[in-house]
Structures are given as C-alpha cells and as structure tokens.
Amino acid sequence: MRDSDDQRTAAPDPFCPPWALREYAELADGERGAVLDPRGRIVWLCAPRWHDDAVFSALIGGAGHFTVEPADPWHVWGGSYEEGTLIRVSRWVTSESVIECREALALPARTDRLVLLRRMRVQRGEARLCLDLDPRPGFGEGRMRGARREDGVWTAGARGLRMRLAGAPEAVWRESAGLRGTFRLREGETHDLVLELAAGQESAPLDADALWRDTEREWRRAVPDCSRLAAPRDARHAYAVLRGLTSVSGGMVAATTSLPERAGGGRNYDYRYAWLRDQCYAGLAVAAHGPHPLVDDAVRFVAERILEDGDKVRPAYTVDGQPVGGERSLRLPGYPGGTDHIGNDAGAQFQLDTFGEALQLFAAAAVHDLLTEDARRAAAVAVDVVERQWLKPDAGLWELEERWWTHSRLSVVCGLRRMAAVLPGREGRRCDALADAVLRETRRRCLAPDGRWRRADDDEGPEAALLVPMARDCVFGDGDGAATRAYVESRLAEDGHLFRFEHPGVPLGDAEGAFLLCGFMMALATHRLGDEVGAFRWFERTRAACGPPGLFAEEYDVRRRQLRGNLPQAFVHAMLLECAVRLAGESALP
Hints:
Elements: E1 25-28, E2 33-36, E3 41-46, E4 54-56, E5 65-70, E6 75-81, E7 88-94, E8 97-105, E9 113-125, E10 127-134, E11 145-150, E12 153-158, E13 161-166, E14 172-174, E15 178-185, E16 190-198, H1 208-222, H2 232-244, E17 274-275, H3 276-289, H4 293-309, E18 316-317, E19 328-329, E20 341-342, H5 353-367, H6 373-389, H7 406-422, H8 425-446, H9 467-471, H10 482-492, E21 493-494, E22 497-498, E23 514-515, H11 516-528, H12 532-543, E24 555-557, E25 562-564, H13 570-583
Antiparallel strand pairs: 1-2, 2-3, 3-4, 3-5, 5-10, 6-7, 7-8, 8-9, 9-16, 10-15, 11-12, 12-13, 13-16, 14-15, 17-18, 19-20, 21-22, 23-24, 24-25
Helix pairs in contact: 2-13, 3-4, 3-5, 3-13, 4-5, 4-6, 5-6, 5-7, 7-8, 11-12, 11-13
C-alpha cells in the first residue's frame, strides 16, 4: 500500500526537477548504472552495485545528484551515444557557445569501486560551467563527512563508501550542500572530472586520460559488428545496453527502479535485479547473432541458480546470486505519478516458463559448443523440475495470480524439444517424451476449436505471450500458429503497437501501455509466417518507440507517445537485437 504524503520524511530535490522518461540517458558498466537527465545532472546511481543503496536518488524525489551544466540558463540541450558504447556525449548550445560533455562509467569495472568520467570541451566560443556534487548515501539519508582536499583531489566518506573527486581543486565544500564550483573554458579547451566511489580505501591514481583509453578499449572489445543486421546502429546500441547491464557475475539486471507504468496506478517496481527469464531472452538474442561473451554470461548465471535452488528457483536474484528482498517504502515522494518502493515481491513466485526459457538457452549454447558441464547438469535439473511441476498452476510470464497459463506450458515444450535435439540418446528421448506429454495435456485444455490457443485453461481471451514460442519457430500441432497470431493482432493491436492482454471493461491503453516486448515478438512471429513486409512494419513501428537517447522502457503510451515504466528495459533491447538478426536472415540458430 502506498504511504500517504504526511508519512514521508523527504521533499524532492529542487535542483533536479523531473523530466519525461524519454529524455533520460543511462551510463552503465555492468556493476551499476547512472541515470542522466538532459541538463547534465546524474540523478540516480547505486553504489557500489546495482542492488545497493543509492548515493544519487533525485530521480525518485530523494537527495543526491552530480551536476555539470552551463552557467547560462538560456541554452538548449541534446546528445547521443558513441556508436556501440554507453559513452554518452551531451551537447549544450548557449547564445555564445557550443559545449560537449563526454560521460561514462569507466571500464573495466570492479564490484567494489566505480569511477565516473566527465570530460567537457568547448566547441565554439567561451563557456562558464557549474559543478554541483552532493553524494547522499542511503537513498539520501546520509551525508559525506570529513571532506578534505589533498593534491587537488577531494575526499570524503560515509556509510562504508569513500569518495574521491579529481578536477575541481577550486570548488568549495559545504557540509549541508556538498561540493560546488565553476570553471571557464575557452574554445578548444577540455576539462576532466573523475569521481570515484569505493567500498574501502583507494589509492589508484585518477588519471583521466588512462581511464578513458581503457574504457574505449573495453567497449571496442565488448560489442560486435552488426553491419549485416537490420537497423545495424540500433542493433549495436541494443547490444551495448545489454553489456552495460551485465555484471562480471553473469547476472543481467532488468532496468532501474520505481518509475511508474501508469500515473497513480500503483504499478512501480524495482528492477535492479536479474530476472532469469529476461537473462534467457538476452542470451537467446545474442546467441542468434553468434557465440559472443554475453551468451556465456547468461548460461553461467542461469545454470548456477538452477543448480543451487532446483525446485525453489526464484524468478529474480541480485546480480551476485542472492535472494531479492520484499517490497518496502523509502518514504520518498517518488517519481511523479509513482512511488518509492524498493525490493520486489515477485522474487518468491513460481514461474514455470523460466525453466522452458532456460532449456532453450542451454540448447542455443550447445549449438555454439558453449554448453558447459555445469550447464548440462543444470539442464537435467530443469527437466526434473518440469517433470514434477508442469501440472501445477504458476504465476507465468506476467507475474500474475497462479493459473494454468498456456504460454508457460508451450515455453516448456519448446525448451524440451530444443534440448532433445542437442542431447544424445536416453537424455534426448526423455526430453522428447516429456514434451509430448505436456503438449498433449495443453492441447486438451487450452486449444480452442478454431485452432488458436486460449490464454489459460479457463480464459478464452487473447494473450500476446503466446507469440513468444511462435517467434522461436516452435510448432505445436496448431497448424502454423497463424490463427493465434491473427487473433492476438485483432484484439490487442492499436496503431501499430501491441498490448499484453485485455483488462475486462477497460479499453486498450487505459489500463496500461503497449508492451514493446510484445511488438518485437509480433514482428518475429509475422516473419516466421512468411510476411516480410508485415514483419518489418511491426519492427519499425516498435523500434521507433524510444526517446532521443535510444533507450526503451517496458511500456509505451500510444496516444501520448510517452515511455512508461523502468528504463532501459533489458528484455526489450534483447528483442530488438533478435529481430535485427532474424529479419536480416543472419540467425545462427534454428
């Protein structure tokens, strides 16, 4: 239940007013992510890792930010990512100057230390820039203490974090407001700021040039060439986003936290965790392109969770494999229209389709000769779990009430058949036999007389999730799936976008936005049926539903043309990548 306003203990940061979600950019290094507004303010950053407390939480109404912006308030803004990276170049045009600010979280990343790089350069004219750094650990509750300047580097600490900032020796520290200063740059001049936050004492030099060289090198190594794919620039950007969200542990977080899907609707979730299903979607998308490192990461993380927890596998974990805590309030105002909840109650659900997606991931790894011994053992455990659990209701892809969801069973059938194709002898035959048993009962319960799949055994309604196995070219004896695809499109499409399912008595778009994952899945399903023009129409319409930084949220408000929910949403970027691969005829998978 949402806390009432009089129970909250904090007011929004007046220096960081909110923007429409489409305007925000993200810097990420795999271990944490920084949300950047178009005016040059970093308004969200958890440290040292994704699931730790935020030191900048202005995004959801808390304290803490890191601002670099022109002193002249009369300016316009823009920016872009350098291709194939999450290095962001912000651009400001004032009446007298043009300024660029290059920004990144430094690579290679460490789990206990982050380094944030900001390099300003005046392209034309002369500019005065303002610095405002106010780190506030504990979601705004703490303050950095013991600030001092030594050899031009500021240091301070609080709550187990140590801060160092190089590049602002003339700035002034105030206990109540942090570090503030200004600096002037002439045309062609550059200026570097290097911020470090670490769990413990650090003594490594904050050498901006060296840190930039290492970061550029790591991005070149990490993101493959996508020139043969549909929409190659967007495909590389999607891969860069997935890389930026993936930890050294292999876990890939879903997105940020507490950004509303509907104003005042109570649907605001903490996505700073690794959902196994989302990780499988990303691994499958990357595997379709080739045997890239993100496939190994996904296989390793998913296999470890299944081997460790078996039947008790959770839908989501922290990136270091720990359980996700339940929802709680921070007593902050929240992003406008939203709340301030952290934690996620879905961490305790049973979702059968997760095992089906894991089996598909392991089979894709085998195609690339990347199926490790641990992954093979995890696949056997997953088959055992399916054998014991497939008749039981589950929460399904959308994490709803426990029912006999059709999609969950079809996902399992697809996974079992994929594994049967790569496993030898008895193991493969066992997967085939179990797939036949699951499909036989699912057809009896969930296949309508007109040849389309019902949403559940007790629900005749349309369900976009049913496009997922069809998009993966899984056939279930329902013809070619055309009846299901046509029914979903006739009931859930609006202006070229697709919704998840119907809310009884509520028009499409009033209860929630279109789901961008579903739009890309419709493109893949349409492509599988041989309609190339239709497939590209769905693909192009859906990939246009992003903001200027090219980041996708979970939902899209079709009528208002606004993003809804947390961003960047990992599984949407994964599906864009898979579409770009398959629609170009470049898939390395069946």
